[in-house]
Amino acid sequence: MTVAPLEAVVEIQPRARVDVLDARALASAAYGDAFEGYARCLYVSPHTTAGYFPQNLARRLTARGAALERYLGLFRAMFPEGAGYQHDKLELRTELPPAQRDVEPTNGDSHLAFMASGLEACVSYEMQQPGPVFFVDLDGLNGATPRRRISTLVGYNDEVEVVRTTIEIPVSPHPIEAVNLRDARFGLASRLAELIDTHGVTKGRVRLELAPAERNASLTVNEYETLLMQHDLADVLRNPLRFAAEKARHAWHDPRAVPVKAVEYAKYDLVRAANRLMDTLGLSASRLERLLARAVEVPASRLLRRKRAVNLLVSDVKTPGRGAVVEGTFQAPILVQWRPTLEGRRTVDVVLSRFL
User: Fold this and answer.
1) Eight-class DSSP state of 336
2) 195: alpha, beta or left, given left = phi > 0 and alpha = psi -120 to 50?
3) Partners of 208 in beta bridges
4) pLDDT of 193-212, one tens digit each?
5) DSSP 3-state percent helix, strand, coil across the chain (nearest 5)
6) CB-CB contact of 308 with 317 (8 Å)
7) Does pTM top 0.85 for this prediction?
8) Helix axis angle, 67-78 relative to 108-117, nearest 10°?
9) What phi and psi values does residue 293 have, to the nearest 5 degrees?
10) pLDDT of 216-250, one tens digit each?
């Protein structure tokens, strides 16, 4: 007998600004073993500073002691809280009404760490593999107040590809650029709605993936806020230690010595964090170690390069019988490039699939 996919929402209560909670256990507490009978489960976060690691990476980080904590510590060293992010200068955030600026969290560090660390808003896990599924929150408190967090879970047994197409995204000749794929000029949202409606998908996902020939670019899902994307992210792509060095400046009392000391301090702090992680993992020459070790010498594009695809949930929870892409209020798929393309455009493959 075919079992229909199951969709439900779990409430998540962060206990600290950076917190890790087991969404699988929370689902079990709320719904019993309802999801455990499915072959796979899609875990979806509508937030831009909290999400999930892909299962393979999560398995490596949870296999040994404090590896997950130290992995997150690496990116907290690279993106320290309160390091002068443009995103945090709320007086410049003209898109926010004055009342909102008074309560808006300053979390530029959390957005950048989310994008660089490999966290995703939508991941699929094999349920036969035991163990926790960690919801990682990088901005769980606003002051002393916990932020309201939720996560959608969709249990399913199989997935079939329904349709595959491509879209062309115009990009500027600027070497560093972040493009909001939700922008109506590109027609992605209307195209996805048309495909979902035409093929009658009510539970499934859309996968956006850079075409195989695309280089020097990545995809992510985050908040497309101008100061964050055009200033903070661009600064990181030019110099991954930009904000670590900015934070280090406050540790020195001799202003004349600040530039050199700050950069050296930042490198030391980052390498020390990477070494703690590698000691915990018991690795000496892993791909991850080489990647992180070189991050102090080359642009942060090396950290973003592996993110060539993002997933978006398709659900009919709002209008039963009619599927639609589900995104958080501030979420948008974003294309990031750190070198221009001669063609002035980039190709993104779009795959719509149905859950069974």
Assistant:
1) E
2) alpha
3) 310, 350
4) 999 999 999 999 999 999 99
5) 35, 30, 35
6) no
7) yes
8) 120
9) -65, -40
10) 899 999 999 999 999 999 888 887 777 877 765 55
